Amino acid sequence: MFGDIARFLLNTVFTLFGAALLLRAWMQVVRMPPYNPVSNAVMQATNWIVLPLRKILPGGKIDWASILAALIAAAVYEVLMVLVAGIDPTIMLPGLAVSAVLDVVKWALNLIIWMTILMALLSWLNPQSPAMPLLYQITAPFLDPLRRILPRLGGIDISPILLFVIVQVLLMVVTRVEYSLKFIGI
């Protein structure tokens, strides 16, 4: 029972932190203003690891320091999960590295799902919410191409539903790849 609780807590904490790191990188790509309260909260939560990494990886259009920080967080997460299971992590290092990369991919895909769900819900419940411009700007790179393809059905935008389905399928593929690699011992 302790192992289940520990795995749940580790998964929750590292998924939220990894998502914050990826959101930071994502906000830089879409040029999110730093004075936004959400941007400010994400920056404050992640500065302690990103700013030192910026000395090694200078910023540009892509925030490589945040992405590297997410990879480091995923590697620490994988090592801690193996330790909770009572296994020596040194015998699983190549597999842990691959699992860490796949964790970052899963965090990014989950972040897309949650941002899309939040945007869709707010657009129905409170379209005048101060968070709407932020959510629209973050989800636009994914939803705009789908909006060009899909017709509007009586004024209803179904592109978030299609994006949700596409990302869910990608999550299934990534999860299957991760289990397959763990099954063969990588």
From TrEMBL:
<feature type="transmembrane region" description="Helical">
    <location>
        <begin position="107"/>
        <end position="125"/>
    </location>
</feature>
<dbReference type="Pfam" id="PF02325">
    <property type="entry name" value="CCB3_YggT"/>
</dbReference>
<feature type="transmembrane region" description="Helical">
    <location>
        <begin position="153"/>
        <end position="174"/>
    </location>
</feature>
<feature type="transmembrane region" description="Helical">
    <location>
        <begin position="6"/>
        <end position="26"/>
    </location>
</feature>
<protein>
    <submittedName>
        <fullName>Membrane protein</fullName>
    </submittedName>
</protein>
<keyword id="KW-1133">Transmembrane helix</keyword>
<dbReference type="GO" id="GO:0016020">
    <property type="term" value="C:membrane"/>
</dbReference>
<comment type="similarity">
    <text>Belongs to the YggT family.</text>
</comment>
<keyword id="KW-0472">Membrane</keyword>
<dbReference type="InterPro" id="IPR003425">
    <property type="entry name" value="CCB3/YggT"/>
</dbReference>
<keyword id="KW-0812">Transmembrane</keyword>
<feature type="transmembrane region" description="Helical">
    <location>
        <begin position="64"/>
        <end position="87"/>
    </location>
</feature>
